Amino acid sequence: MSGSEAVAKPGITVLASKISKEYVDEITKKVEALKSIRPEGPLLVGFLANGDPAAEMYASWTKKTSESMGFRYELRRVDEKDFLEEAIIEANRDDAVDGIMVYYPIFGNAQDQYLQQVVAREKDVEGLNHVYYQNMYHNIRYLDNEKQLKSILPCTPLAIVKILEYLKIYNTLLPEGNRLYGKKVVIVNRSEIVGRPLAALLANDGAIVFSVDVNNVQKFTRGESLKFIKHHVEDLGPYSEDLLKQCCADADVIITGVPSPKYKFPTEYVRDGTVCINFSSEKNFDDSIKTKASLYVPMTGKVTISMLLRNMLRLIENAEKVKAKN
Amino acid sequence: MSGSEAVAKPGITVLASKISKEYVDEITKKVEALKSIRPEGPLLVGFLANGDPAAEMYASWTKKTSESMGFRYELRRVDEKDFLEEAIIEANRDDAVDGIMVYYPIFGNAQDQYLQQVVAREKDVEGLNHVYYQNMYHNIRYLDNEKQLKSILPCTPLAIVKILEYLKIYNTLLPEGNRLYGKKVVIVNRSEIVGRPLAALLANDGAIVFSVDVNNVQKFTRGESLKFIKHHVEDLGPYSEDLLKQCCADADVIITGVPSPKYKFPTEYVRDGTVCINFSSEKNFDDSIKTKASLYVPMTGKVTISMLLRNMLRLIENAEKVKAKN
């Protein structure tokens, strides 16, 4: 009991490439099967307008990854941010374009949220359209009453769900929709793009989620809403180290997404055996986490891009169904 | 020339109540004419979930104003912010509700932008739906290809356009769409809700607009877009007192919307005879502005509420047209 330092720490680092493998195979097969309607492969267009070298890197990596699975990828550089909206609208209207993604931030403020809604819902592979978010928050799986057109999920939160499935945090002995029952998850990030939707998704699947940002800590649970199947949110109080420590004390999973090179999650708050996942492009855990975490996923990008391409295939399926109907 | 202090300053303060009078009369008549389909008056529902006494005041004033024109107004208080989304969705679905407004801020962050999109487009009297903004930015006036359903404009920017019309800044000798040709306008605020759309609206009507925020100064002009009738934006540089001073030197109109009691626009930058309008709920100009401004509009709320109610009538007209068609 007392000699815990001497006990072997059999923690394992799990790479996103390993997690994404099954999806890569699945997607590659599906793209192959699409040859009859997309002989040259589906076309994904990425818009780069921020001149950010990191975004350039990400773009060339998206190109490589998507092409390796049989997609075509076209990077469109827009010199003036102000022209991006028109460029997106042009791609919305272009039948040759199957999917559209934008390398954010562009303006780095609320105008980016405006742009996200400019991308046609039918080509929004990132799943940023308001309809997709609203459906996600309310557990609505289809876009139409006939349940023919599947709604898609924002690709980063979806990727983290898939990672949690891979890591067996989702318990398949439990019924679907309740497979996180009994699990406690800490999420350090409450952005509208990832942190809040992720908290809702996990709560909708039965977890208790502690959602942490610089301002406060909130508890997401499934709740007992009368009218909608929807998560419930409770304020636990302003952010403090103590409160974070409390939340971590019996957390099964800690997920971080703080976009700062300076931020490090305090390893000393992590109990032995916690599953730790970082979705920030910065390294939010330092290496000491390996002495505590049972499973540690240092980066998630490769799973995210798989989900994005999976979304794209779903959008193409939807488009074909709409065409067949008309 | 040198004794300018001694010259009479015939500046006039114009109250929003005076500007809104013609709209109040027009709206009241239209509501009366709607008696056949809305015998008890159209129903506007306001949602209050922030417990803010200022919002309470604004709500009771909305109630009084709208009831005086023949509308019914119902304030719905939502105790927990987290329940607001469901309350809005309920109102979206309720045929008895004609219009919905929300007293923002609720969360005070990007989640408010999510909520704005939850309000059904057909009942969004404030005109905050993405479709309305996108139509506004692109000078699109209708929601349908048949040009039966009129798009609406966000109510605060619209109110300021109406104020500029009343003040004869819009020159009716010029053709519609070019009535601000030759005018220079400074706008201190570039929010997604008011400042940026307003700058675009005025640029679309031919003005040169200097859009100022804490970060930088941008110049909005109509531009010569190949594919869309749309404003053009140019960065003039980071914000500085000097740059602001330059922009004001030959400005015809200065419009402020800084939501802080501490902020005062420097009267010394205002040239004699400038038209000054403040749409912030705080007093952005101090009284010395009266020695400089030819026309000074210290508050705009009463025009805004008129535009909101006018939007509501338009939405009811649209709904009736859709009904007649089906």
**Oligomerization status of the protein chains:** homodimer
Q: Please outline the major beta sheet of chain A.
A: 8 strands, mixed
The CATH topology of the largest domain in chain A is what? Rossmann fold
What Rg of chain A, in angstroms, do the CA atoms define?
A: 20 Å
Can you identify the CATH class of the largest domain in chain A?
Answer: Alpha Beta
Structural class of chain A: alpha/beta
Helix content of chain A: 25-40%
The strand line-up of the biggest sheet of chain A is 1-11-10-9-5-6-7-8
How many extended strands of chain A? Answer: 11
**Topology as H/E string of chain A?**
EHEHEHEHHHEHEEEHEEEH
Strand share of the residues of chain A?
Answer: 15-25%
Cα(first) to Cα(last) distance of chain A is 69 Å
Low-pLDDT residue spans of chain A: none
Quick check: average pLDDT of chain A? 92
Q: In DSSP terms, counting alpha (H) and pi (I) runs of 4 or more, how many helices of chain A?
A: 9
> What is the total domain count of chain A?
2
GO cellular component, one term (chains A, B): nucleus
Domain Tetrahydrofolate dehydrogenase/cyclohydrolase NAD(P)-binding (chains A, B): 154-214
Main location (chains A, B): cytoplasm
Function (chains A, B): Catalyzes oxidation of cytoplasmic one-carbon units for purine biosynthesis.
